[in-house]
Amino acid sequence: MNETNPTPPQFPPHIPPMPSVTPPPTARSLGDNPEERVPITSPITAIEAILRQPRRVMYQLRQPGAGALMFYLAVIAILCAVVYGVVVGTFSGKDQLWIAPVKVAGGMLVSALICLPSLYIFACLSGSQARLVEIFGLVMGMLMLTTILLIGFAPVAWLFSQSTESVNWMGTLHLIFWFIAAIFGLRFVDTAFSHSQAKSNAGFNTWVVIFMLVVVQMTTALRPIVGTSESFFPKEKKFFLSYWADCLKPGSERSRPETTR
Length: 261
Description:
The chain is mostly helical. It is built from eight helices and no strands.
């Protein structure tokens, strides 16, 4: 009688356990931190809040009666722009000590107001629930943060204005300082934009390009800001790229007047 060999039992292959995945923490809503709900009641408090607690400014702009905060933001932005404009004017002296502050503060404020409607439209198209008044407050906060950072660069700008004669170099230096400060100001608006239920940042990113183009064109429309001129506004209309190309041509370099040395 043949003895059949029993079939060995089949064991399932060893499957390593799946690693545990910790879900990413959900973003905190504005106002979750009790400190963000503390009202901003003075310009000094507004400066401290936008530097240390920007979410507090974003939350307060959504609350009823945010008009006082918007006023603080706008006034501080204008004052800081005027102070930095005085530093710009020290390069040439004389009339530029008042012309440069007017052009710097007025140019930044007008550029922001020109771009305000497009920012609101892009916000609506992106699904944002931010109201127009809130968008205005965010733009004022952006200007305030940008100009405060420019004040931080002011001592460096003054040092170079007293140690160089090149108008083109000083103009480039001021543009670099503004560009760095604008990045932080735009980041403030971007963060607030993400808390307004916007489904996409494409609209905001498009607006950033528009805003940057408007500002650099404004510097050309109000030229000269660093150097001197016989008239307050230029007599010739130019696109900023064309103007910059002219400044880079050999023989176009200008120096500040001899009387200001």
